[in-house]
Every structure is written in structure tokens, then in C-alpha cells.
Amino acid sequence: MMDAYTLYEEAREVAARLARDAGQIARYYAGRVTVREKGYNELVTQADEEVQRFLIEQIHRHFPEHAILAEENLSDMQDGREGASFRWIIDPIDGTTNFTHGVPPYGISLALQHEGRTVVGVVYDVPHDELFTAVRGGGLYVNGVRARVSQTETLREALITTGFPYREVVHLEEYLEALGRVIRATRGVRRPGAASVDLAWVACGRFDGFFETGLSPWDVAAGILLVEEGGGRVTDFHGRPDPIFARQMLATNGRIHEALCELVAPLHHVYA
Ligand code: IPD
Ligand code: CA
Ligand code: CA
Fold it and tell me: Residues that bind Mg(2+) 2, according to the entry (predicted)?
């Protein structure tokens, strides 16, 4: 019988290979997709669906017992393994708006949970050909090289990343006030456009912190583990850990966590 860590390592290797292969599918479709809106400003393309189909088929080939939670609603791919102790959480293309406009980055995000705990996280930034992987307890790797969060101690020296609201913009004023506080307190703010990559870039020390509301589990499942394994901290705006289903994300190098939390805390009732 294989021990748990060996199984997680094997799952990481499979996920890393699948993410790179899925990246090839996305690259093939780049610049030649038909875009549909599944909701206001919520885009989906054949590439999202093809990549998801590929990932589900391959995961079931390697791990037939594992359940899957994935973003796109593919009626021909119902799972039926809901009670399983292992579950994959998949975003086939994170950053579809970037993808459809030819703007980097966009990512493929795969997480494996065991008994509800994320144990493997893989994010592949396709345009930059960068693969971020982690197994719980085993550290963060970027293209196979060990990496860590930044050592920035103060907001004054910090570069922060965020996601602007774009679907339900009912809390826009409050968001803009928080953004204003963060702009005033820090070295600057960026909006790259793919939450999984925002988290990966906090994990490896490019950004010192990230905040956003309205995120779904597939946007953040893998990225949360990357940040934690890079030595950082991830909470909701109340400071509670493991915000995978919280629809609020605050991820930092740990050192600036409380200071950034104070600036975004007035958004603690915003989940959209
Ligand atoms: C989106 C991206 C974006 C974030 C959105 C997500 P999608 O994912 O991660 O950065 O601001 O909230 O929904 O829809 O491109 O997979
Ligand atoms: Ca996403
Ligand atoms: Ca997506």
C-alpha cells in the first residue's frame, strides 16, 4: 500500500504533466476562439471546454476513484463520485478575458484535496511557460526550482496585486475606497487578470500581497497551497485561514498580512 505522501507526489507529477499538455491545447486555440458570455462579463470559449474535457478524461484515467469539481458546466461529463475522499478542483483556463484578448498571463489551475484538505497545487502560466507546483509540507517549486515568498517587512515597500470587480459591481465604491487606501500605503498595485497566477506570484516573492473578492474555489484552490508552501499566509478579510470557499482572498508573504488586512477589513461583508 502506497503511503499518502508518495501518492501526493505522484499526483503532483501527473498534474504537472497534464497542465503543460493542457497549455498546448490553449496555445492552439489562442487567437482563434469564438467567445460566448455565460453571464454578464463572464466569458467562455471552446478552449476552456476542450481543456477541461482533456483534464477530466486524463485525471479519471490516472485516478479512476477521484472526484472532480471543475468550473465549466459540461453536461456530457457528470462526475458521480461525490463521496470520494480525493477530489480535484480545476480551473481549465483562469484568466479567460486575458486569453481572449491575447494578454498574458492566463493559467491552468489544478488542486487535489484529500479529506477536504488541499495536498497538491499546480498552476501553469501558459504565456510565460512557468509551472508552479507544491505538495503540502514539501515546499514550492517554480519550473523545478525551489522558491519562497518575499521578505518585505512594510507596506511602504510592498507591491500588491488585486482583481477589480467586473461582474456584480454593487460594491464598487467600497472596493475603490479600499484600493485607494492600498495605493496610498504601498509601492503600487497591479491587476494581472488571473487569480491563480496572482497567488503564484505572491508565493514566489514577485508580489508581497494579493486581495480580491468574489473568487470561486477553482480560482484559488491550487494558489492557496502555493502561497502557504512558499512560506506565506492566506486568510479571508476577517483573518480566518483556508478561505477556499470564502469568496474573499487575502494572501501575503506573512510579514505584511496584518497591515494589509487592516486596509481591506472594511470589505469583510463583500463576497461578490
Ligand atoms: C477570473 C480570473 C480573474 C478574477 C476573476 C476570476 P476566469 O477567472 O481569475 O483574475 O478577477 O474573479 O473569475 O473566469 O477567467 O476563470
Ligand atoms: Ca478562474
Ligand atoms: Ca476559468
Answer: 93
pLDDT score of 83: 79
Q: Is the pLDDT of residue 79 over 70?
A: no
Spatial distance between the Cα atoms of 92 and 74, rounded to a whole number of angstroms: 12
- With contact defined as beta carbons under 8 Å apart, do 127 and 104 qualify? yes
Range of lowest pLDDT (67-76, 88-97, 161-170, 219-228): 67-76
Q: Classify the C-alpha dihedral 143-146-152-153 as positive or negative.
A: positive
Task: Tell me which of 125, 147, 169 is where a domain ends.
Answer: 147
SS (H, E, C) 58-109: HHHHHCCCCEEEECCCCHHHCCCCCCCCEEEEEEEEECHHHHHHCCCCCEEE
Domain stops at, among 117, 147, 177 = 147
> Are 46 and 71 in contact, with CB atoms under 8 Å apart?
no
CB of residue 194 inside a 6 A radius of ligand 1: yes
Ligand 2 centroid from CA 70, angstroms = 10
Q: For the full predicted model, state whether its pTM sits above 0.85.
A: yes
CB 254 within 8 A of CB 144: no
**Domain span including residue 34:** 4-147
Residue nearest to atom 16 of ligand 1 (CA): 94
